[in-house]
Amino acid sequence: MKEDFDHLSNAQLLALCIYGEARGESTEGKIAVGSVVLERVRRQIWFGKTITEVILKPYQFSCFLENDPNYKKLVHIADQWDEEMVENISLNDCYTIAAGLLNGNIEQYPKATHYHTKDIKTQWDDDMAMVAQIGAHLFYV
To answer: Which pTM value belongs to this model?
Structure first.
């Protein structure tokens, strides 16, 4: 699994995560999902210390689970990055957001470490404070 994405830069991998998790969301929703990744890196705790470690940590981002319907699409995009960037407007948008978050041109929001869609119920969110609802996602810290 990890080897499918090893060749990607931080911006590419973050863009792929945003694409897999939030491509149907508003710009604000995409920024929020990318911000969760960066907040986990910033905190340097259980999630990992690098963008790659955080994103590819098992069971953290569903689109990177091998049985997730998005997974094969993400592997294909990773393998064909240059062609996908030319043809896929949504991926381009996610890459612009990822690069902006990484270079500081886009401010992180919210300062959340977790999120899920409002259509599901989890057990872990009972012990966390919800800090935002953006589009279909609820964000927690």
So the answer is: 0.96
